[in-house]
Design a protein that fits this description.
GIY-YIG endonuclease; 2 domains; alpha+beta; single chain; 11 strands; 27% strand
C-alpha cells in the first residue's frame, strides 16, 4: 500500500499537488532520528535556511538506516512562515500536526526507490513511490536499559544508543563482561562473541557501532567495505549471559565455546574458531 493513499484517508483535503515531502537526513551535525527520539523534531524541522515548505501540507519522513528506508514522522499543515536574519538568514515555519495521522507517527516504515539527493521534493514526485513496508506495534523509542535478558537491538538502534551515549545502557553494559549473540536476519546465520575487556560489553559493542564487523573475519567479509551500505541493518544484537568484570579470560572463553557448540555457529554461522 502507498503512503499517499493513507494520507488521503487521514486528511480529506490532502492531495499530492498541495504537499512537500521532507526527507530528513543527517545534516552534518545532527541525525534526525536522534532528534525525533529526543522529542525535538517539530522545532528542528521548523527552522529552514530556504523557503522549503511553500505548500499547504508537509509530509515528514526520516531516513532510517538504509538510503531507501524511511520512518513516518508526521503529516503537517502549514499555518505560517516568518523570515529572520539572526544569527543568519533563515525561515521559521509554523507547522500544525494533523491529528488523524498521529497514531502512525514513529510506527510506519516506508520503502522508496527515489534516489535523488534533494531533501524537499514535491508531493507529486513521490506520490506513487512510498510503499509501506513495516508497521511497528508501538511508537519507536530508545528507552532506558530493559535488563540483560530483554536486550534485542537492531544495528540501527545500537548505533543510536552508542551515538547518544544513553546513560542507563552505558552503565549496564560497561559493568559486565559476557557472551553476546549477533543474528543476521537476512540469512539466519549467527555469530557468538565474547566481551572480556575492561569496558565490558559496552566497549565491544561500541566497536560494532563504529565498524559493523568488529574485526571478526567472517563478519568483515560479509559486512566490510565491499558490502552494500544497507547490509549492516540486517543485524540484531542480544546477550546470552553475563559475568562480572573480575571474571578471568579462560572462564569466558569456555562459556563462549559452550554457546558456539549449542547454537552450531561454527557449522552454520559466522564463527570461524
Amino acid at each position: 500500500m502507498l503512503l499517499f493513499d493513507l494520507l488521503k484517508q487521514w486528511e480529506p483535503d490532502f492531495t499530492p499537488g498541495c504537499a512537500k515531502v521532507h526527507l530528513a537526513r543527517f545534516n552534518g551535525k545532527e541525525h534526525p532520528l536522534d532528534v525525533f527520539l529526543e522529542g525535538r523534531f517539530d522545532k528542528w524541522q521548523s527552522w529552514q535556511s530556504q523557503r522549503s515548505f511553500e505548500k499547504d501540507y508537509v509530509v515528514s519522513l526520516i531516513q532510517a538506516g538504509r538510503p531507501t528506508r524511511w520512518l513516518f514522522a508526521g503529516l503537517f499543515r502549514r499555518k505560517g512562515r516568518s523570515h529572520h536574519t539572526e544569527p543568519r538568514s533563515h525561515y521559521l515555519y509554523e507547522l500544525e500536526r494533523i491529528e488523524a495521522a498521529e497514531e502512525w507517527v514513529g510506527r510506519l516504515y516506508l520503502k522508496s526507490t527515489y534516489k535523488h539527493r534533494h531533501s524537499y521534493p514535491k508531493g507529486k514526485t513521490l506520490a506513487n513511490d512510498l510503499v509501506i513496508s513495516e508497521l511497528l506495534p508501538r511508537r519507536l523509542t530508545i528507552g532506558d536499559f530493559p535488563g540483560f535478558k530483554s536486550v534485542n537491538l537492531t544495528k540501527e538502534h545500537l548505533d543510536i544508543v552508542v551515538r547518544q551515549n544513553i546513560p542507563t545502557w552505558r552503565a549496564a553494559l560497561s559493568s559486565v563482561k559476557g557472551i553476546y549473540l549477533i543474528t543476521d536476519v537476512e540469512t539466519g546465520k549467527l555469530y557468538v562473541g565474547k566481551a572480556d575487556g575492561e569496558s565490558g560489553i559496552w566497549g565491544r559493542w561500541c566497536t560494532y557501532a563504529a565498524t559493523t564487523h568488529g574485526g571478526n573475519v567472517a563478519l568483515k567479509k560479509e559486512f566490510g567495505i565491499d558490502a552494500p551500505p544497507d547490509r549492516q541493518y540486517h543485524l540484531r544484537f542480544s546477550i546470552l549471559e553475563v559475568t562480572d568484570l573480575h571474571a578471568m579470560t579462560p572462564e569466558i572463553d569456555a562459556r563462549e565455546n559452550h554457546w558456539k557448540q549449542i547454537l552450531l555457529s561454527r557449522d552454520f554461522g559466522y564463527n570461524r574458531n
